[in-house]
Amino acid sequence: MGQPTPARKDPDWWRDAVIYQVYVRSFADGDGDGTGDLAGVRARLPYLAELGVDALWFTPWYLSPLKDGGYDVADYRTIDPAFGTLAEAEKLIAEAAGLGIRTIVDIVPNHVSDQHPWFRAALAAGPGSPERELFHFRPGRGPHGELPPNDWPSQFAGSTEPVWTRLPDGDWYLHLFTPEQPDLNWAHPAVRQEHEDVLRFWFERGVAGVRIDSAALLAKDPDLPDLAAHPEPHPFLDRDELHDIYRSWRRVADEYDGVFVGEVWLPDPERFARYLRPDELHTAFNFSFLTCPWDAGRLRTAIDTTLAEHAPVGAPATWVLCNHDVTRTVTRYGRADTAFDFATKAFGTPADLALGTRRARAAALLSLALPGAVYLYQGEELGLPEADIPLESIQDPMHFRSGGTDPGRDGCRVPLPWAAGLPYAGFGSREEPWLPQPEGWPSYAVDRQRRDPHSTLSLYRTAIALRRVFGDGPLTWLPAPDGVLAFARADALCVVNLSAASAPLPAHSRLLLASGPLDPTARLPQDTAAWLRA
Fold it and tell me: In which family does this protein belong, per the annotation (predicted)?
C-alpha cells in the first residue's frame, strides 16, 4: 500500500470520497464484553485502510442511555463508557488520519436524552422556569389539561404513540421520537450557542466533518399549531428558519475546513437543494436512490433527478444503498418488492438471498461509478443479509412504539463476523454479542472472504481501488436495450443489466471489472454490472 495522503491536503476530498459508516456497537468488540467499542475499531483500522475508504462516519459514540441506539445523547463531550474514553477517540482520529482516513462524527441537534443535564434541570425547575424554555413545554388542552397540546405525529414510521408526555406537575413536553428524547427549542440562543461550541469541540480534535441527524426537523412554529389545521408551512419540517442555523454552522466549519452531510428527507427537490447552497451544508444524503426499487427506469430517474437537483448549487451527489436504519441491500433486492419504505416493513417477508446478492453486487458497481461521494454501511462489503432477530432479543424502540408490528432496525445492526473459526465469528472474545448473530453468520466472515477472489469483499476492494478510472467529469447515458443502464464518464463505461435476459456489451477495449462472470458469448448476464475501458 502506498504512502497515505495527509488528511488536510485536499480540501475537496469529500466531493468524490468513499465514506464508511461505523456503527460502533456492532463493528468490533475490543474488550470482549459483547459490545463493540473504540478499541475494536482501532484494531481494525488496517482492514479499513486495505478496503480503501477515504473517511469513517461514526454513528453517535457519546454518553447515552442507549434508548435509541445512541441517538439519545446525554453529553456530547463524553464518550460512552461502553465504547471507551475521549482519549481513545482522540487516538482513533489521529491513527485513522495517519492511514489517510478522515473522521466524521454524528450530531443529533433535534433532541437530547432525558438524562441530559439541561432536561434534568428543566424537570427540577418546574413550570414556567427559564430551564424549561430550552425545550418545548406546554400546558395541555381540555378542561383539566389532560389532552396533548397538539396533534403532531411521531417521526417513527408506524408509531401509534403520542409525541407529548405529561409530567406530574401538569406540563407536557414534546418529543418527535421517543419520550426519552425531548426536542430542543431552537429559537433559544443558548441552544444555538451550545451546538456551535460542540462543533468546535470536535473540529479541534481533528474530525473532518459532521453528519447532521434529522436535519430538517429542528425548527418549530412557535405557536405549535395542529398539523391538520396548519399543514403549510409545515409546523416542524423544513422550516425556513433552518437555513439561518446552518449558515451559522457553516461559518464554524469553514474555520476548520470541516464538511457537513445532512440527513434531509424531503420530497421536494427544490426545497432539498436549498440546504446545499454554498453557504450551508456541503452534502446531503440521497434517499431517492436508497429507497429506489431494482428497476432500470426508476433507477435512471433517481440518478437523473439527483444530479439535476444538485447541479444548480454546485454540490456533489451522495449515493448510498443501505444504512443503520434500513433493510440490508442483499435482503431487500431479494424480495418481490425491492423498494424500501418504513411504512411497509413487516415480519416474515420472504427473500431470495442468492438473487439479492447478485443484485447487491451489481448495485455496488453502479453506485461506485456515479459522480459524487459514496457512503458504505459496515457489512455491506461482506454481502451481509438482514438478520431475523428473535422477538425476545429485539431492542429497537421503533418496534415497541409500533405496537410490535414493525420488526425494527436491529436486523441491519447485528455485530460483524470477522473470523469464521472464533467465538461469535470473531466479533468479541468473551461475552455473547449485544444482538445475536444468526446461524451461518461465520460464512460471511472477513477472513474467509479475504482468501476468496470472487467474494463480495474482494469485489468492493477492487472496485474502490479502480473507481478513479471514471474521473471527475459528468455522466453521459449511452444507448442500451430496455432494462439496461449504460453510461460513460471519462474513458470508462458502466453497464448494469436489470433486464430478464443477457445483454450485449457496448463497444470497448477491455473489461475492467464485473460483479459476476460473463456468459460464454461475453454477454452481460441478468442482474450483473460491468466496468469497461472505452
Answer: Belongs to the glycosyl hydrolase 13 family.
